[in-house]
Amino acid sequence: MTASRTARADVRAELTRQITDIARRQLATEGAGGLSLRAVAREMGMVSSAVYRYFASRDELLTALIIDGYQAVGAAVEQADASRPAEDHAGRWLAVCRALRGWAVAHPHEYALLHGSPVPGYHAPADTLAPAMRTTLVLGGLVADAHRAGAITPPAGLPTPPAVLTEDAERVRQVMPGVPDDTVLRALTAWTGVHGWLGFELFGQFTGSVLNLPEAFDHTARTLGTLIGFRPAPAG
């Protein structure tokens, strides 16, 4: 690549970063539905046609923000999982949950874009699927690791789960290979519980009722880990 092409690529990358940074600020003030390329152009001091050379539509800009968000939270969760010993399944689960909460609290509007109400008129393209799966793959790998190690013991007295997973649920079975359906269902319930807690926390539903949110979240995450059947790794 020539020096001039490298310089043009650097300029394009920098302007793309500026556009997405402004768009993230718009999420905080206008919500995803109010995202506007024209407003981005005004803030940058550019004509709107210039911004359209970087993102052809609002939906293309939304897709970029969604992919960036999934990649960022996925990286945080993967790093947290890798920070614990492989055999410490309960510790890995808690680390993953804390990483997810940490990212969500630091980026509430991006979390809402990923996990909140659908944006009217927007349909996510296929290239968002792989980034979206990063955190799910960490969870699935953790559950599969614990199952292979014989380290999952569900709490006593649980109701018999219904047969809700169809025979062609290949995506679920690939994420948690070899894991029995009842364990898969408990893992899905636990992961849904974590996201439900985060939705309540980020949207103010705990105001006036929960005093110490980080401590309460840790308790909730540990409880949900017990539902899956994680138990502390043996000493030694």
Walkthrough of the structure:
- Helices cover 66% and strands 0% of the residues.
- The longest helix has 28 residues, at 3-30.
- The radius of gyration is 21 Å and the shape is elongated.
- The termini are far apart.
- By secondary structure, it is an all-alpha fold.
- The protein folds into 2 domains: 1-56, Arc Repressor Mutant, subunit A (Orthogonal Bundle), CATH 1.10.10; 60-228, Orthogonal Bundle (Tetracycline Repressor, domain 2).
SSE blueprint:
Layout: H1 3-30, H2 37-44, H3 48-51, H4 58-82, H5 89-106, H6 108-115, H7 129-148, H8 170-175, H9 181-202, H10 213-228
Helix pairs in contact: 1-2, 4-5, 4-6, 4-7, 5-6, 5-7, 5-10, 9-10
Discrete helix count: 10
Largest sheet: none
| CATH architecture annotation of the largest domain | Orthogonal Bundle
**What is the rounded Rg?**
21 Å
Question: Which shape, going by the Cα principal axes?
Answer: elongated
Report the structural category: mainly alpha
| Low confidence ranges | none
Topology pattern, helix = H, strand = E: HHHHHHHHHH
Could you tell me the mean pLDDT? 88
> First CA to last CA: what distance?
55 Å
Q: What percent strand?
A: under 5%
What is the count of structural domains? 2
CATH topology of the largest domain: Tetracycline Repressor, domain 2
The CATH superfamily label of the largest domain reads Tetracycline Repressor, domain 2
Q: What's the total number of strands?
A: 0
Which bin fits the share of residues in helices?
55-70%
**What is the class of the largest domain in the CATH system?**
Mainly Alpha
